[in-house]
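I'll show a record.
***
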Amino acid sequence: MEGVQSSKVAGCIRVGKWGKQSGGPQNEWSFALEKDHKLVKITIDHGELIYSLMFTTKCGGVLHNSNKFGGWNGGDTVSEVHFEGDEEITEVGGAIGNRGGNLVISLLSFKTNKRTYGPFGCATENVFSLPWHKGSLVGFYGLAGYYIDAIGVYLKAFENIIQVGTWGKTEPGSPQNVWSFQLEKNHHLKKITIDHGDLIYSLMFTTQCGSLTQTTETFGGWNGGDTVSEIIFERDEEITGICGTSALSRGSVAGLPIISSISFTTNKKTHGPFGNVRGTPFPVSWDVGSFVGFYGLAGYYIDNIGVYLKACK
């Protein structure tokens, strides 16, 4: 459970990080649950930002504390989050701030299958959230010095694939509103077709395997947008993150929670944003080799979106 230079954990999916994107080896931190260990406590030193984090696990009645990550400076308040025996974290949220021209984590909250803890720290407009399904949290990683500069999570799928998200509409939809796209074995994502305007109206995906191409149905688009854009991916190009915003629809069908904008980041470039960047942002990234597909709800528009991820080999 010590801080290590390499933040990759075998068999796990690394999602994030949010905040500062690069630092020296001395600033890298990583906490991963060991076999048969249960996370029982998180200690957060905070004030106008997150100063430090420390994790306590339990195995066979014995408590184990990680290093304290960050905290070269101290905060105003030290809070402890205690988890019950059958309690599991199912979502991490927070905000990114700025201290002396450097990005830092200014706020954190932890949602479990029982309640929400926090927020701790101070809110900004630069927020992030990461819910997941069909998998579990197995650790955190990031950068730290005087403060917690960046944070990401380690997730492990219950089977082969974990669902990360969704962002946008939070209420469950009817079966006819559910959409899902997964890459088949040996298929490469060749193209995404986006119908957009003040929001994202529809998405369509084209894959290629050898000389064979396959195109999905159009997801969403019961109403049409102003512009249809196509992203053409190179053969060795892969999606490593998305950044979007969620808001309420406007115009003739107003007041519906929707995806108002989206961009796709690959190992080569960023495509977008498409739509209108307004509302609540949802930036999320992952390692090359993890992407499997997208899913969500759609009707007149793309109501929400999530990502299928798998562990890198």
